[in-house]
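Notes from the 1:1 (GR / supervisor)

We went over the backlog. Supervisor wanted to see one worked example end to end before approving the batch request, so GR pasted a single chain during the call. The sequence is below; no edits were made to it. Supervisor asked that the structure be written out right there so they could see what the output format looks like.
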Amino acid sequence: MSSSVAAPPGHPGTARASGSAAPGPGPAGSPLNERFASNWRSDLPAGLVVFLVAVPLCLGIALASGAPLFAGLVSGMVGGLVVSLLSGSQLMVSGPAAGLTAIVVAAIGQLGTFEAFLTSVVLAGVLQLGLAALRAGIIGYFFPSSVIKGMLAAIGLILILKQLPHAVGYDVNAMGDEAFRESGAGNTFTSLTAAARALTLGPTLLAGASLLLLVILDRPAVKRRTRLLPGPLLIVLLGVLANEVFTAAVPGLAIDATHRVQLPQAESLRGWLSLFTTPDWSALARTETWRIALTIGLVASLETLLSLEATDKIDPYKREAPPNRELFAQGIGNALCGLIGGLPITGVIVRSSVNIDAGARTRTAAFFHGVLLLVAVLAFPGLLNRIPLASLAAILLYTGYKLAHPRLFRTAYRLGWSQFVPFAATVVAIVLTDLLVGIGVGLAVGAFFVLKNNYEHPFHVTTENYHYAKVLRLTLSEETSFLNKASIVSTLNELPPGTEVEVDGTRARYIDYDVLEILNDFRETARLRNIRLRLLGIPEVATTPHH
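Structure output shown during the call:
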């Protein structure tokens, strides 16, 4: 009897039979294995799609960070060629992250040179290796599911809001910029308004047709027939071809170089090697270098753990990657990036989502995207510079729609307010601020519901009838902390005179001193109010004398 593994609500993946050659944990020959021979037909096309999307994102993040454009490509190569092999995640893609751009801009300004900044990146990588050794990756398990799902939905909305301008030919902001506040006094919404006024016909037609085609190609019946040519790859090829036709036959619709990928080009191998940069080790003597390294190491580690958790949630095969191994892989990657002139890297959910959506099964896809980045920069940068940004924007718009699928919002709502409110708060906060601030808001809202639940359910109240009287029994929960103090006090204060009450703490594994003090103090209060009180499993403690 066969079973199937279904993708989570709102995720692009479709159900796959467990008896098929699918990836996952287990020895070779088992229904789930990670052998290259079993998965290359899915992984290589997916890696190609990720590569096409990664090029403008790497360049855009470098531009937004105030760093050399080639630094973004270096980080993409390291993320693909090195981190993918060391990581325990089969589907997460690593590279330069939009969430670090503000930190990088400020750091380069404080240190004065990009070379001095690279020293901080090396130190940040060493810090991550230390965190891996201390097994600090466990912190990733402390993020509630509602917050992680909210992060996925928020990233999807950000993709839609940020890529709409590129889809209509308004390429003022870098393609990898995900921050709400943009250059000057603008923000995400003012950029949308400006894009609507500056709409260009050629890119708009191309993006609209690409989106329609992506919807058609994503239908299961069509998808099965085009497995070796994923929809996003076909969109890119048709985008290049369409622009060639526009240029030759309809010049008014032609998309010029400013609205296409702009990959740096070197005339020779020596010129290409000269683009790599090494750290300025004299920066080690400056306090700012170490402080910036600490900031980058901690923020990059947190973003990676969040992305890892999110990637595991949208993995159709529900594999769970070891977080400490991921910190180790990221530490090696960041140390190497600093040594050869790259931006700091993290696990990135946008490229990981594209990877999964393109049908990737194992780490081969992420590694292959790194190989293609290396080959493209060396061999054919001019060819990639023909790709319209509108085509890539269409791919990211469709990915964003799947991440922020309406079904995801409906499911969160049906789970109740304690799940929906932290989910919604995370979405709104990330869209209006940034990833880390939004996650912090989501955690705070989630913590409020935990406190509220503890306040409302610190004990179980029952009424038991005995032959001599009716007894009110308060059975304390397993963990009774100071957070439950207000509810316990309120219940005891409402007891009418003449009540016979029994407080049972025999099932509690932990009772906070504050609660013990209240119950011991209540002995005297109960006597004065003619309340018969029995305390079971409640140890006597020294109480604070009245002043």
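Supervisor's comment: The chain has a mean pLDDT of 87.
Batch request approved.
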